[in-house]
Amino acid sequence: MSVKQKVLVSRPRSQCHQLAEGVFALGAEPLVMPSIDIIKLTIPPENMTGATAIVTSANAAHSAMENGFIFDDVKLLAVGAATTRSFTQKGYTVRWTAEPANSEGVVEILRSAEDCQDTPFFLLTGVGGRNLIQDYLVQSDLQFRRLDLYRRQDYPFDRGELDRLSSFNGLVTVGSNESLSSFHRQLGTRFSGFAENPLVVNSERGRQHALSLGWQGDIYVPMTPGDTGQLACIGQWLTKFEV
Predict the structure, then answer these.
(1) 228 three-state secondary structure
(2) What is the tens place of the pLDDT at every residue in 101-139?
(3) Domains located in the chain, CATH noted
(4) Who is most buried in 17, 41, 162, 214, counting CB within 10 A?
C-alpha cells in the first residue's frame, strides 16, 4: 500500500492503545479518538464469601478490586476473556467465562450451572446498559444484589475534533454501542457524513445498533471476540487496497 489507510480507534482511553498498535502493525494509520470515558465509582466492599459473583466487564472487575472487594471464596462468572484475565492476573480463579461475551452467554451458563443455584448472587456491573441478566435473576426468583461500579460519560470533542470526524475518510472501529451513540450525540447533523465510512463493531447486536442510528457504510462483525476479531476485520478491509 503506497498510501496508508486510516483507521479510527474508539473505545475508552485506557483501552485504545493495544488495538491501535495492532492497526499500525497491519500497515494502516491508527487515529485514536475515544468517545466515552469510564468513571469508576467508590462503594464500600461487600462480603461475598460463598456467593456467586457475575462480573459483566473488565471495568467492573477493576473497579471492584480497587474498592477492596475480595474474591477468595467466591464463584466467579466473568463475561468475556478480558474480564477473566482481570481476575486471573490477580491470582483469582474464575469458575465460568461467558463466551460469547454477552448477557445471553451468562444466562445460558446460569441455566445449566446447578452448583450455583443455591448461592446468593452479586451482579457487578455498570450504570445503565442491558438488564437481561438482572431480569433473568428476578424471573428465576434467585436472591441477588446489583452493584454499579462504574458509569460511562461522553468524552467531549472540541470543535477541531468534530471537524476532523466530519471529514474523516477511512475505517471506524468501536468497542461498544455506547461509543457509537456518543459519536451520534456529539456530531448531531454531521453524523450522516461520518456514517458513510465502513465500520467494525463487536457483535450482531452492535451492527443492529449502528443501523438504527442510520449507519450507511459497510459494517463488519468479527467472528471472534475482542481485539483479535476486530483486527481480522481491519485486515480484511485493508486487502481492498492491495496492489
Answers:
(1) helix
(2) 788 889 999 998 877 778 899 999 999 877 899 999 999
(3) 6-35+157-241 (3.40.50.10090), 39-151 (3.40.50.10090)
(4) 162
For cell 445471553, name the residue.
104
State CA 131 to chain mean position distance. 16
Helix (H, G, I), strand (E, B) or coil at 152: strand
Alpha-carbon gap, residue 231 to 6, rounded angstroms? 14
Query: Is there a cis peptide before residue 45, judged by omega within 30 degrees of 0?
Result: no
Q: Three-class SS string for 8-56?
A: EEECCHHHCHHHHHHHHHCCCEEEECCCEEEEECCCCCCCCCCCEEEEC
DSSP code of residue 5: P
Side chain identity at residue 146, one-letter code: R
111, containing H or E segment: helix 103-112
The sign of the CA dihedral 218, 224, 227, 228 is negative
